[in-house]
Structure formats: structure tokens, C-alpha cells
Amino acid sequence: MNQEKIINVKNLTKTFGSFTAVKSISFDVNQGEIFGFLGANGAGKTTAMKMLIGISKPTSGEAVVAGFDVKTQSEMVKKSIGYMSQKFSMYDDLTIKENITFFGGIYGLSRIQIKEKTAELIYELGLEEVADKLVSALPLGWKQKLSFSVALLHEPKIVFLDEPTGGVDPITRRQFWEMIYAEAHKGTTIFVTTHYMDEAEYCDRVSIMVEGSIEALDSPKNLKKQYNVTSMNDVFLKLARNVE
């Protein structure tokens, strides 16, 4: 992992009427880093991520993602990143192969690239026998793995994962994190939101959001040391109590 900043956020804020969902947050993410964006449901994680991926305009503050301003260059941001949403993002009424082809087209790949990437992805995931079956036939864990792989089709510099392991069993969660590690090892930056505190241990650094604000940001090891606890869950509980 190098120290080049691929995400730079300064005083980013999002309000909805009188409610402030994201309160003037600031942080940087290094290229090739696995950056965990943690917090309980409703803490503001998804709202913040939507601003970073260019689909929601900040009320105030600044953010530069992959060299592009999220306010003025949101289309360039979208082309430079991969994104896997909280809800499964493949189309159930298309086959596995058709989904890959469809998203390859959206990401601007040529027909030859799509053909090559489709064959490569199906082989890597071991889906040769079911490639022509509807995605709806796949178990949730396999859908998540496919969705992650499709988010990487165009070889983005950063991939944003919003609660990627929600609802899957512990074994599948571990396998999914192995895929994340493999991708980060290639130099791709992984920005992942989760409310599973044990998953924080897999990240290089984590920020913890409580009620719209970042209350802590460091490596899991340093945070546990700072708060004199043995798990990230205990760190989170201490932070939540401090805010109350």
C-alpha cells in the first residue's frame, strides 16, 4: 500500500431539511488501502458513501475521489469507481452471463473486452455449469461474490462496498473477505461500510461514525490500544457511550 491519497474529504456535510445526516466529516484514504467505514445502522455511512460515489450532492464541504471533484465531476467519479450496493445489484431476470455482459456495456467495455472478462469471471468463480441460468437461482452468498466481481469488471481504482456481507453466513463472509484481500493486493482501494464490528479487524484503517460524525479513525490495533479494549466491538460501545 502506498501513501498516495485516492480519496480526500474535507468538512463533508449532508442535510435533509432540519436534519443533518452527515456532520462535517474529514478524512483521507490511501491508494491500495482497505478502509472500513463503520457504524450502527442509521449512523450516516450510506449517506456519506452516496456523496463519495457521485449520486448525492453534498450540502457543503469538499470531496475528491480518484482525482475528481464529487460536486462538479460526478460523472468522471462514477467511471473511475466500482460500486456494490447494500441491496443485491444484479438483475434476477437475466442470466449470469447476461448480467456480466450488461454491466460490461454500462462500464464502457468493448465487445471483445466483455467477452474476455465474462469468460474469465465465470471461470474464476467456478460458475461454468450455471452461467446460462437466471441469477435468481443463485444462493445469496454467490450473488454477493458475483456482484463484487462485476463491480471490478472495468478495473476501477477504487471499489465501494456498501454492507457487502449483510445476511450471508459466516463462511461466506470469510470467503468474501478473501476476495477483498486479493483485490487490495493488486493495488485496488477498497472502501467498505459495515455494521459488523468483527469485520473491522480485516481493514488497514477504520473510521467509526456515530450519529453522523466520525468519532474515531485509526488502525484497529491502535484503536483497541487507545481505548484499552480487546475487540473493535468494545471500541464502538465505548464511543457510543461517550457520545450519549
TrEMBL record:
Membrane topology classification: Multi-pass membrane protein
Chain ranges of the ABC transporter domain: 7-236
Alphabetized PROSITE patterns for the sequence: ABC_TRANSPORTER_2
Principal cellular location given in the protein's record: membrane
Top-level taxon in the UniProt lineage: Bacteria
Keyword Membrane: yes
A GO molecular-function annotation: ATP binding
GO CC, alphabetical: membrane
Alphabetical list of Gene3D superfamilies matching this protein: P-loop containing nucleotide triphosphate hydrolases
Annotated keywords: ATP-binding, Membrane, Nucleotide-binding, Transmembrane, Transmembrane helix, Transport
Localization (cell): Membrane
Annotated protein name in UniProt: ABC-2 type transport system ATP-binding protein
